[in-house]
Amino acid sequence: MTLSRALTLAIASTFLVPQLAFAHVGLGDTHDALHGFSHPLSGVDHILAMVSVGLLAANLGGRAIWAVPASFVAMMVIGGVLGMAGFNVPLTEVGIGVSVLVLGSIIALSVRLPVSIAMALAATFAIFHGFAHGAEMPENTSGLLFASGFVVSTILLHGIGIALGMGIMSLSQAASHMTMKIGGGAIALVGVALVTGVI
Hints:
The chain is built from 9 helices and no strands. The protein is globular, with a radius of gyration of 17 Å.
């Protein structure tokens, strides 16, 4: 099985996870996990940042394909725990906006970061995203189930970014470069709008 087919299968299978997890309609646990799953999908800032992590990982290739998203998910969970516990992470919304701006710019400019730097960057931004998820968790919700929901959702978004990146890179070099430049530039512009409070 090729890597692109394996990624497609992995992404498709993640769509089944919520259906299995939420099969018992009306139970509190399903409500908790569903809240967590839907939270990263509720804002363009989270969606663009997480898809961008996947795009960046695909651009770097090799072990970055799993290492960069894994570093994001690990630190996002820590950020989520901080949010659930009531700690304060200053400038969370600014950090989230900056993550979209920086990741989009890296993609647009085709910056070749060392994998360790890309992991550290993704992990830093993940703290802000995770904190936002945890801090906005409903009070009557199970933290573990809520966290498992937003982890699955985040992995799905990373997988979409990786699949998009690999698809784009399968184009001709000129077309691939131009597509990444335009897509990354558009993401960066949204980041500017987020940081400046336009959106």
